C-alpha cells in the first residue's frame, strides 16, 4: 500500500534529477580544478554519457547506487511501494 497518492508520488518523482546530480557535480568540479575540460550529456554519443573528455577520447558514466542497485551499499534499496516494478527496473538498469 502506498503512503502517498499517485499525484504526490508523481510530483516527488518529477523532482528526481537525471543529470546534474550531486555526484556528477562533485566529479566535474574535481576534473575542472585539475585542468580537465569536458562536455556533459552529449546526445550524439551512445548512452548519452554524463561527462565526455574529448581531448582524451574518454567518457564517464556516473552511476547512482539507488538506480543501479550496487550490492552492499546503504543507498541501494528496494522501495516498499510498487516493489515488483522497482525490482524489474533496477535489474534492467544493472544489465545495461
Mind explaining what this structure looks like?
- There is one protein chain.
- The protein has 4 helices and 3 strands; from the N terminus they run ααβββαα.
- The radius of gyration is 16 Å and the shape is elongated.
- The mean pLDDT is 85.
- It has 2 domains: 17-62, no CATH class; 66-96, no CATH class.
- A 3-stranded antiparallel sheet has the order 1-2-3, with no helix packed on it.
- The protein is mainly alpha-helical and 96 residues long.
Strand content: 5-15%
How many strands, which pairing sense, and closed or not: the largest β-sheet? Answer: 3 strands, antiparallel
pLDDT averaged residue by residue: 85
In percent, how helical is the residue content? 25-40%
Low-confidence runs (pLDDT<50, min 5 residues)? none
Q: Largest beta sheet: what is the strand line-up?
A: 1-2-3
For the secondary structure, the number of strands is 3
Query: Number of DSSP helices?
Result: 4
Provide the number of structural domains.
2
Structural class: mainly alpha
- Spell out the helices and strands N to C: HHEEEHH
Distance from N terminus to C terminus (CA atoms, Å) equals 30 Å
Shape: elongated
How do you describe this structure in short?
This protein is mostly helical and 96 residues long. The protein has four helices and three strands; from the N terminus they run H-H-E-E-E-H-H. The radius of gyration is 16 Å and the shape is elongated.
Amino acid at each position: 500500500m502506498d503512503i502517498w497518492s499517485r499525484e504526490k508520488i508523481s510530483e516527488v518523482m518529477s523532482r528526481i534529477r537525471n543529470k546534474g546530480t550531486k555526484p556528477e557535480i562533485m566529479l566535474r568540479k574535481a576534473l575542472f580544478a585539475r585542468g580537465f575540460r569536458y562536455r556533459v550529456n552529449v546526445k550524439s554519443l551512445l548512452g548519452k554519457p554524463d561527462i565526455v573528455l574529448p581531448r582524451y577520447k574518454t567518457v564517464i558514466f556516473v552511476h547512482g547506487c539507488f538506480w543501479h542497485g550496487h550490492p552492499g551499499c546503504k543507498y541501494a534499496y528496494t522501495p516498499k511501494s510498487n516493489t515488483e516494478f522497482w525490482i524489474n527496473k533496477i535489474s534492467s538498469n544493472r544489465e545495461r
